[in-house]
Amino acid sequence: MTEPTRAGFVALIGEPNAGKSTLLNQMVGAKVSIVTHKVQTTRARIRGICMEGAAQIVFVDTPGLFRPRRRLDRAMVAAAWGGAADADLVVLLIEAHRGLTEGVKVVLETLRERLGERKVALAINKIDKVKAETLLGLAEAANAAYPFTKTFMISAERGYGVADLRAWLASELPEAPWYYPEDQIADVPMRQIAAEITREKLTLRLHEELPYQLTVETENWEDRPDGSTRIDQLIYVMRDGHKGIVLGHGGETIKSISQASRAEMAEFLGRPVHLFLQVKVRPNWLEEPERYNEIGLDFKDGN
Questions:
Q1: Which of 61, 91, 146, 231 has its CA 20 to 30 A from that of 162?
Q2: Does this model's pTM top 0.85?
Q3: What does the alpha-carbon distance between residue 203 and residue 190 come to, in Å, rounded to a whole number?
Q4: Residues facing residue 175 across a β-bridge
Q5: H or E segment at 171?
Q6: What is the pLDDT of residues 119-159, one digit of tens each?
Q7: Are residue 111 and residue 47 in the same domain, yes or no?
Q8: How many structural domains are present in the chain?
Q9: Pick from 115, 95, 104: nearest CA to 145
Q10: Containing structural domain, residue 202
Q11: Residue-wise pLDDT tens digits, 212-269
Q12: Which helix (H) or strand (E) holds 236?
């Protein structure tokens, strides 16, 4: 007898920087979601796809759950809860060394209100940062606060416990035909992945606040007859001073970012890439519906 195929969506939720993007990339076996040391770097719902036996797991990496202050924040949080509400299964990530923060407690309360009887697994991440007795105490406290279906101890960065979590998720998905071809690893337009790659390089290079006040859009994509790809991207910033910072002295910063971004795009696409970046000042991009559509968010959710 052939094993029946299973397929479904798994939402990864948690506070900013809990390790959701790292876990998604680890599950998929390739980098499909932006990962930096800064919080709130994932803005839209990014879908990564992995195969586990006869099961196809479609992971939804959601923006971190936090207390929103502006339109973009509100749209990001709405996207996160929307991803959880639409999923077959939900995995809540919490950081082992931070424990049940006030933010996590708010998420647990909201889980009860929004998800009802949905199966939610707890993944305690970054287990290599604390002692075993601390982990056990945290697991007990978390399960006392919310009736998790299953608890996993993992290190998304190092891969510890990830295989067990993936196997359990696969077994819990409904019997269904696969949604995507077996070799597809993401359900995100390549233009958006390319924009995210550049935004990641900007986030890693620039100082604390600026990355949250810029966005990247892929304006043009041309696959050339010689097998290479030309990509033109716009970087929108809010002030003239920001433009100067992104460009750097003599264009040094933008050149470094372009080189790093181009190299990663070429590796991801498996072909040479010609990348052209342009920086534009757009003071009100946070209030423009087109910018939200481009990064996969609903402008109306920011109200």
A1: 146
A2: no
A3: 20
A4: 6
A5: helix 162-172
A6: 899 999 999 998 988 999 999 999 999 999 999 999 999 99
A7: yes
A8: 2
A9: 104
A10: 190-302
A11: 678 899 999 999 999 999 999 999 998 888 899 899 999 999 999 999 999 999 998 8
A12: strand 229-237
